Protein: N-acetyltransferase
Organism: Patiriisocius marinus
Amino acid sequence: MKLNIRKASVQDMPAVLDLIKELAIFEKEPNAVAITTDDLIANGFGNNPLFYCYIAILDDEIVGMAICYFRFSTWKGKTVHLEDLIVKENKRGLGVGKALYTQVMKFANDHGVKRVEWVVLDWNKPAVNFYESTGANLLKDWYLVQMDEEGLSNFLEKE
């Protein structure tokens, strides 16, 4: 078993999209993925990429990925947001997730950020336990707030 973590390329985006779809199924939102491979390529590559992607390759197969991007905190300054980290279900428990997580933390450290943050579902106990074991703090007194496309449109119509 040879595990390799590297920055994703344009050619990796179909496999990354498959992992995103697998994550959506795991998170009980199988129909939520609206992006395409072309969207990933257009937004992740070029002069001003909106995200950075690392992939995990195990025995010549892409088995996991992590997507992150820079954010700005008015309290801390430059931060990194870990958007998604997924490992194929049949490859979990082999250290792939930890290797991807470590790569994102190295990326953040190399860029001198003041914080890395992400969201984890409260029912995903293996992930919660893993993150806590690494020293991450789970902020239980904060709400995750989102405005979807329909909500945005409805709000702006009323303004």
